[in-house]
Design a protein that fits this description.
Blueprint (H helix, E strand, L loop, with lengths): L7 H21 L1 H20 L3 H31 L5 H33 L1
Helix pairs in contact: 1-2, 2-3, 3-4
């Protein structure tokens, strides 16, 4: 890829592409819908129980990591399907590993949520 130098216009255009990626994630990816629903529930509950700034930082990081992992997973799946539309064991393994990464982060995020919310709710 040729580098034609830095321009503000190019940087702003790159943000447009990035926001389009987020739009695609939340409008087209079914698993991301689940993550977004849980995110909304967590934010509402966090406002109700008045989380501290430190707790919000942990929640925000967990939400961001899960959504970013889901975006990576979706990108890997889309690329893999374009490269090899027919069944391919290596592609299956790659997609399974990416999905497993999302699941690991979702579990870690749930643990973070439980550590923060259980004492406040009970």
């Amino acid at each position: 890829m040729k580098n034609n130098g830095f321009t503000l216009r190019k940087r702003l255009r790159s943000f447009r592409f990035a926001f389009n990626g987020i739009r695609l994630l939340v409008t087209c990816e079914h698993n991301a819908w689940i993550h977004c629903f849980i995110t909304a529930c967590v934010i509402i509950t966090g406002c109700i129980v008045k989380l501290s700034a430190t707790e919000w930082i942990a929640i925000a990081m967990a939400i961001g990591m899960v959504l970013a992992a889901e975006a990576f997973n979706s990108a890997i799946e889309a690329l893999a399907d374009a490269v090899s539309p027919d069944y391919n064991e290596a592609i299956k393994r790659t997609k399974d590993l990416a999905a497993g990464a999302v699941l690991l982060l979702a579990i870690a995020s749930a643990v973070i949520g439980l550590i923060i919310f259980i004492p406040k709710l009970f």
